[in-house]
Design goal:
binds nicotinamide-adenine-dinucleotide, alpha/beta, Rossmann fold, 15 strands, Dihydrodipicolinate Reductase, domain 2, nine-stranded mixed β-sheet
Amino acid sequence: MKKFNAAIVGFGAVGPIHQKAVEESKYANLYAICDNDPKRLEGCNSDVKLYSDFKQVLADSNIHVIHICTPHYLHVPMAEEALKHGKHVVLEKPVAMSKDELSTLIKEYEKNTQKVCVMLQNRTNNSIVKMAELIKNDKSLGKMLGIAGFLTWHRTPEYYMHDDWRGKWKTEGGGLVINQAVHIVDLLNLLGGKIKSVTASMSNKSLPGVIEVEDTADAFFEFENQMRGCLYCTNAYPPSSPFRIEINFENALLRYADNRLYKITDDNAQVLAFDNTTLYGKSYWGSGHMRAVDDFYTSLAADKGDYISLEDSIHSTNVMLAMYESAKENKKIFL
Ligand SMILES: NC(=O)c1ccc[n+]([C@@H]2O[C@H](COP(=O)([O-])OP(=O)(O)OC[C@H]3O[C@@H](n4cnc5c(N)ncnc54)[C@H](O)[C@@H]3O)[C@@H](O)[C@H]2O)c1
């Protein structure tokens, strides 16, 4: 059986989750870990090559797949270099910090044959998969009337001060929206239909003087199917709980909350799905890394396209970037 050698670049909070996912995937082999901070490599398995410079990863011809788990400002430059060196890429979200960066990456991707998997792993949660299936097949729900998303998380001053790149336009590219809400924006676009316009506002409610960027945002979306959507998200809430999505239909409400899918009608409430229960990392990150990474390696082995690809992520990345443009220019942005 062919196994693909993986290198994880960036071994901070999320790098170890990629390690677990690679170790659990039958078509992947953890070959190298790279971090330019030696402390982050302390305690790593000695069977694995340890690199301190990304150039060593690029130069190692045994490496087939590079997982980019570094700060946002390094995503596109590192993905571009990886593709130029013939490597497949697993790219942590966000895909890019700006439209220019996004088009740079797409251009490089189109020149090559390697694949890029984007870590919008919540798409693979059992409840989200079930929700998508019901939207497609369950005619008894009736017409979809509206979709709403809520994310109430907590980020402390210490969280931002611990890592120098966080909370800054130049290195994080924004705050709550590009880092935390990016997942829920992606899911609203996926489940509601394609978003065609964005009207958003942003503010810094709880961390003025600590971060340059937003900790709170809301948005109004119009979809190509004439449906409407609303989003409220903040990092100013006391605990971080799993985010919620509600979809109102003529005959029922589908609610994703508590890592479960509920179907609610006038006289009944049922739980239709639970998310995967094996959790690594924080519960509110969702547990989809394992499945998303495994889907990618399985697709590499079978030469199939059944994974969260760069192409699949472009529209929701543009929606996320349009939220910034709308908030900055105080106007509706058409995609
Ligand atoms: N998909 C998710 O649910 C999820 C969850 C958490 C984080 N993330 C994303 O993962 C990425 C990393 O986030 P994090 O929280 O792990 O950040 P982090 O700051 O904890 O880790 C980043 C690591 O990258 C290393 N690094 C920086 N520059 C480097 C370079 N030039 N070469 C090699 N290593 C370098 C740092 O030393 C650090 O160890 C971000 O894009 C973040 O948005 C995604």
